[in-house]
Design goal:
about 325 residues; Rossmann fold; 14 strands
Length: about 325
């Protein structure tokens, strides 16, 4: 099969919303090439592993590469993607150059080439994420290894929004708690919760491709007896009362179900939110407080925000 490669030259701020647009448009892979990767000071707190080739990255800004099958609807799909990206200006998201180019690539070339972007990364005190094809050996006895095969449709689990979520799970999750993962994607947060000792985890995603991928990854990590993955729209029709809800999705989406999260959580339960850009931090905080939550902690990594909120005991 032949694929069309869309190259979108944009900004770091626009990575998450544009990636979401591409995924919803049926993109079969997203690669992020960020020029800032070479200028950042790298923390060695968690022993991150970086293998970056400067020739793969733009001189400035960010290039997102997405992959769509070449068919009779391609032109229409590309036009819809352009329109959706331009609509992000309504949310005051800086799109930078906002330049889109389209080229053709063979599936065989992409299937092998994309793997160079994915290496083992230790992203918290105990959690290391590694691709299935890497022979990674743990460096400590309490290290927890998550193996992912993201395929061509999902990220590698090492984006700052995911790292913030995993670090919050490691800090706050207690053994034998029940967790709901809203917008589970590859299932990485559900897997993390299970490995950290949750007794039951429910991963929900509206996208059937995500549901299939998450089920594969939970089996790969031998936690499918703990994690239940289902297709569902946010928390609609959910009646489980968890100790914790985690949602690594866009702020606009978080603001659609914060009241449901409050209603379902047990007293004292935590709502871990991530995927929030700076411009929407106050909006999310205010909505959480209005829903009844107390703000426990606000964290930041690069340009991304994570907010941990608690449902009061009384």
């Amino acid at each position: 099969m032949k694929w069309s490669e869309l190259c979108i030259h944009t900004t770091n701020e626009a990575i998450e919303p544009i990636s979401n647009i591409l995924h919803e448009a049926g993109a079969s892979g997203v690669v992020i090439e960020d020029a800032e990767d070479f200028g950042r000071e790298r923390s060695t707190e968690f022993g991150e592993i970086y293998e970056l080739d400067p020739t793969d990255y733009p001189e400035e800004g960010v290039v997102l590469k997405a992959y769509l099958p070449i068919n009779s609807f391609l032109g229409e799909s590309v036009e819809q993607i352009k329109q959706a990206i331009n609509q992000l200006l309504v949310y005051n998201i800086d799109l930078g150059h906002n330049r889109i180019t389209v080229s053709e690539v063979n599936e065989e070339e992409w299937a092998s080439a994309w793997k160079k972007y994915y290496k083992p990364v230790k992203i918290s005190g105990r959690i290391t994420i590694t691709p299935t094809w890497e022979n990674y050996q743990p460096v400590s006895t309490d290290e927890l290894i998550i193996e992912l095969d993201p395929g061509m449709a999902f990220g590698t689990g090492t984006h700052p929004t995911t790292v913030l979520s995993i670090q919050a799970l490691e800090k706050y999750l207690q053994s034998d708690q029940t967790v709901i993962d809203v917008g589970t994607g590859s299932g990485v947060l559900s897997i993390t919760a299970a490995l950290l000792g949750a007794k039951a985890v429910f991963g929900y995603d509206l996208d059937d491709i995500a549901v299939k991928a998450a089920k594969i990854n939970t089996k790969l990590n031998k936690v499918d007896n703990i994690v239940t993955v289902k297709q569902n729209n946010l928390l609609n029709h959910v009646e489980i009362n968890p100790d914790m809800i985690v949602a690594n999705i866009l702020a606009e989406v978080i603001l659609r179900f914060e009241k449901d999260a409050f209603r379902l959580l047990k007293p004292g339960g935590l709502f871990i939110t991530s995927g929030i850009i700076q411009a929407r931090k106050q909006d999310v905080k205010q909505a959480l407080v209005k829903a009844g939550f107390d703000i426990v902690e606000v964290n930041q990594m690069e340009d991304w925000i994570s907010i941990i909120a608690q449902k009061p005991y009384q």
